[in-house]
Amino acid sequence: MLKRFATLAILCVLVASAAAPQAAADPNADPPGIGEADAGPPPPDGAVPSGDPGILTAPDGWTLTVSARNETQLPVPPLTTALSSREYLVGGTFTGSVTGKGSGKLAGGVLETGYQIGCGINLLRLELFGGAGATPAFGPTFALTSLAVPVNGTIEVELSPGTVTIVTVDKKTFQHTDSRVTLTGVHVKIDGCVGQSFLRSYATLTSSTDSADDVVSYLGVTMAV
């Protein structure tokens, strides 16, 4: 009788364990695969934020807007392998538009795009001044056993304060009210930079009428590279 009750108790425990619900999952967790699908593709290498658009309301009523999106700036090793060279792989889409109801007749314009590279210290000149002398050593039979050739000299480095180099990539002439320049995989490079360098994009929109030119610029976010 005792064995029968013990067996019955064990069966009840096993049935209760099998019927108990599993630990509840996190109700806020996404189903498998959903999070990855919603994340979208990863950003491209060297993706950087864009700056605020440049906006100008001209005296004759036209509104000029220049902006950028999808910008990339990726430092790459220079082909010269020189430590004083800076090279970047850049890209982005730059747009310009003229809207409103101005009094002057529009005659098209120009959208110029490029990059500004700032260098903390410029290398102007690097020279080695010195001389070489020979010190012979002779053995017991006066035979020459060794020859020491020391090199004595100094290195003169001439530096200058940092400068900003403007690299124009494209100038698009347009006849209507909208213009666009898209850059992909463009190399920009400067030489003689031994300090920290900074890079930012720029775009300048010029709109012309029969009697005036209006100019507005966009400046990208300055990146230390």
Concise synopsis of the structure shown:
The protein is mainly beta and 225 residues long. It contains 2 helices and 11 strands, in the order ααβββββββββββ.
Can you tell me about this structure?
The protein has 225 residues and is mainly beta. The protein has a domain at 44-124 and 159-224: Sandwich (Immunoglobulin-like), CATH 2.60.40.1650. The chain has helices at residues 2-19, 34-39, and strands at 54-57, 63-76, 86-99, 106-132, 135-138, 144-148, 151-174, 178-190, 197-209, 213-219, 223-224. The strands form three sheets. Strands 4, 7, 9, 10 and 11 form a five-stranded antiparallel sheet that branches. A four-stranded antiparallel sheet has the order 1-2-3-8, with no helix packed on it. The chain has a two-stranded antiparallel ribbon with strand order 5-6. The model is unreliable at 1-25 and 33-37 (pLDDT under 50).
CATH fold label of the domain at 44-124 and 159-224: Immunoglobulin-like
User: Please, what is the average pLDDT?
Assistant: 76
Let me know the CATH homologous superfamily of the domain at 44-124 and 159-224.
Answer: Porin MspA (Ig-like beta-sandwich domain)
Low-confidence stretches: 1-25, 33-37
Protein traits:
11 strands; mainly beta; 56% strand; single chain; 225 residues; disordered N terminus; five-stranded antiparallel beta sheet; Immunoglobulin-like; four-stranded antiparallel beta sheet
Write the topology of this structure:
Blueprint: H1 2-19, H2 34-39, E1 54-57, E2 63-76, E3 86-99, E4 106-132, E5 135-138, E6 144-148, E7 151-174, E8 178-190, E9 197-209, E10 213-219, E11 223-224
Antiparallel strand pairs: 1-2, 2-3, 3-8, 4-7, 4-9, 5-6, 9-10, 9-11
